[in-house]
Write a structure and sequence with these properties.
This protein has 124 residues and is mostly helical. It has five helices and no strands. 77% of the residues lie in helices and 0% in strands. It is rod-shaped and about 105 Å long.
Length: 124
Amino acid sequence: MDKTTSSKSKALWYSLNAKRKHWKQCITLLAATVVGAVTKHVTPLISVRLMNISKLTGMNWVRELLTGHPIYFSDALVMPKHVYLKLVKDLQLYSGLTHSKHVQLEEQVALFLHFCKTESYQQV
């Protein structure tokens, strides 16, 4: 009777170990699946996207924005082209903003707007 009790205990012990091993494998597989899914969906949201893809600088960059696609313009300066042009005109007319020695009025406003947009994204 001792051998049967001993063999039953060993069989039970091996069975419990097998179940534990199976559960560990299942949990590991589930965790790996969750991590993979989260990584797949979150990585594009946190990956760095270049804000300024143009090689142009200064007024050439502003001209490229003004003659380019409207979505690219509003992406860079956070407003549609017609609103930007109205803003430049009003600033010149009502506030007396003028061209400086090296920077034209349109470039001054565009740089200010771009700086404000970039700083607000960095604070988030």
